[in-house]
Structures are given as structure tokens and as C-alpha cells.
Amino acid sequence: MQNLKKRFQLFHKSFPFLNIQEQIENFAVFDGSDFKNLQLSTDIIENIKINILNDIDKLRETFTQNEDIKKILYKLAIGDRKQYAVYKHNQISQQKGKYLYKELYTKNIITKEQTREKLPKSSKHRPLKKEYRGYVAENKLKFTKNFHRFWYTFIALRQDKIVNLDLVEEDIKNNLDKFISLTFEELSNELIKQDIFGLNIVETGGYWDKHVEIDILSKDVDGNYIIGECKWTNQKICKNVLRKLQNKAKLIDFQVTKYALFSKNGFSNSFQKENSKEILLFDIDKFKRLNDD
Fold first, then answer.
1. Fold of 190-291
2. What value, to the nearest 5°, has the Cα angle with vertex 153 and ends 169 and 45?
């Protein structure tokens, strides 16, 4: 399967009339669908109604009817994505959970995001702290197709014989920005690698451990780290977001030298006076760089 950036570029070439915000919104929903047959306008809700809600019964036939798998994929779509928590929440045994995961991997419905957490080691003279005894660093799971994640977030578990489309549409309107946030985070990890920014990134991705979760942890060629926060909301990012990110840096064992903020709706006036090489600001226009060859 093509990597995220290539898929994003292909989507852009198929729908060049969308501006960068509209491209991200529609990519977050329709990536992985048969988008050659999509009818898209510049209104994301209208696109969802025409291409999904109006064809919901036919689309339902293309998805699994296995109840355990539907519950696992629903939890994966809306939860923290940690692999053991996904099936424990649904009271599925570990043995059965592993079997179902294997089926989903084989069908290329999910893939694994490796943890980067480094656990403390015990020794004869330095036993593990109580909080780490029995603790396991968990990988995360993610959908290979955004369209599948959308389906299992908003539609799959609605078992009504006649689905109330007005209620589904209202749910989507209320929660779409939250849904798009994960795709925006993944695209932000792609953006920070672009040569145009001169950051010389050799490794990037999300980071989570027992105490903290960070949208972006990027390592440069010199072994320094950048941590980042991504906000897909209608509010501008303010200095409070930066302060929280700086506090997170104190909780991880990495040499953080820069902070990156990625915003759908720009930055507060307080950032306009910011002239620090340690603070990197990425507004939505910068995401156009992902479409450069």
C-alpha cells in the first residue's frame, strides 16, 4: 500500500479544486474508498451525505458482519488504540483477540504502530519501582484506510433496521473535527520531514508511555528531538498550548531542542511576536507542501 504522503498527493490530483483544508477533511473521510467514483463538492458534510449516508445499505454489505470484529474496530476507531485495551474493553479473551487481530492484519484492515517507550531495567541493586512491575509497553493499532475508520466511528454499530440518517448526520457534524484530528496529526508528521523546512528529520511519529502522550516526537540527524502538538479546531492556538507542550518535555527522557505547533486555524496574536528558533509554527497553508513532488 502507498505511504500516507503518496495517497494524499493522489487525492489532490483527483480533486484539485479542493483547497488545502477541504483536501485534508475529505482525505480523512474518503481515503481508502473507491474515490474514483466519488462526487465531491467543497462542503464536507454534503459529500458525506451524498457518498455515504445516501448509500448506507449498499455500503453496509461490503463490511464484516462479525460482531466481535465490529466491536474491536469500533473501539479502535474511537479509543486510545492500544492493542490489549481494544479487546479487553469488549471482554474478549486474549487468545481470541490475537486470532481476530491476525485476521485483520491478513486482510490489511489494520496495521501496527510500534511503541517507542523505553522501560526502566531492573538489576540486583536497583529493583523496578512498584508502578512498573507487571507494566507492559503497548503498541498501538491503526486502520490502513481512513474510510474504514470513519465507518466504524459513526456507522458500523448502528443496528437499526431503518437508520435515522438525521441522527447520524448530527453525530458526524458534532464530532467530525475530533475525527479528523488523527489524520491531521499523521499529516503533520509527514510535513515536518519536508526538506523545505531544513530540519533534517530522520525519525518521527507519535510518542506515548506510562505518563505522557505526545502527538509528534521527531529526531533530527544530530540526535536532537522536536516535540509537537496538533490542533484541528476552529480556535487559534495560544501560548497555553505551548506551555503544556513544554511541560510534557520534562516528562520524557529525550533532549528536546525545539517545539512545533500545527494549527488548522492559525495562532493567537501573542505568537506574532515570537521570534525564537526553538518555536516552529505550521499553519494550514504550509500543508500545501505535501503536494509538492
1. Trna Endonuclease; Chain: A, domain 1 (3.40.1350)
2. 30
